[in-house]
Design goal:
mainly alpha; 185 residues; Leucine-rich Repeat Variant; 47% helix
Length: 185
């Protein structure tokens, strides 16, 4: 009789990520991701993991429930949030229409924690835009609001860049209505 595999707890995932930490690389990442006072990554903690290391840790956990992903997104540790986003993208790719809708809604409810360019890039791999079909025209574009002013001179490019990935799936599937209409900020 085989035992069913229990979903992981956030603590087990954090232990796995922490086991791979690299303090020297963490110092480099803190500078690279601008975590100093007043910078866009202020408050983020880094354990010094590179993307392949986070993905290797993800491979050890075949199923990550939304509740666990939510706990990881609440973490101050950047790599934990990256893990959560990668887990959401993986679950979205494997899920049926109902699961994709749940994951997409969860993702939209947590965008405040997906707050750095590499997290946005990782999320864009999920091609969330396919779910825009079930939303009112343009609704997907309105979810990204700048939390701070990014770039020199208070540039507001962040919301536009982070939503541009939403157009990938609709254009691949032939659904184009409203894909390129991004509201001015």
């Amino acid at each position: 009789m085989s035992r069913a595999r229990r979903p992981p707890a956030a603590a087990a995932i954090l232990r796995e990520l922490k086991r791979r930490r690299n303090p020297a690389q963490a110092a480099v990442l803190r500078r690279f991701f601008k975590t100093g006072p007043g910078e866009y990554g202020e408050g983020d903690e880094f354990w010094g993991l590179k993307v392949p290391q986070v993905r290797a840790a993800l491979a050890r956990f075949p199923e990550v429930p939304l509740a666990v992903a939510g706990e990881l997104l609440d973490s101050a540790v950047h790599e934990a949030r990256f893990f959560a986003v990668a887990a959401l993208v993986r679950a979205y790719a494997r899920g049926d229409a109902a699961a994709r809708a749940r994951i997409f809604d969860f993702y939209l409810s947590r965008t405040a924690r997906i707050n750095n360019w590499d997290l946005v890039d990782a999320a864009r791999r999920g091609s969330w835009g396919g779910n825009c079909r079930r939303a009112a025209a343009g609704a997907c574009w309105g979810v990204w609001r700048p939390r701070r002013r990014f770039g020199t001179g208070g540039s507001r490019w962040w919301p536009r860049w982070s939503t541009s990935g939403g157009a990938i799936a609709p254009t691949r599937t032939g659904w184009r209505s409203g894909c390129w209409t991004i509201p001015r900020t």
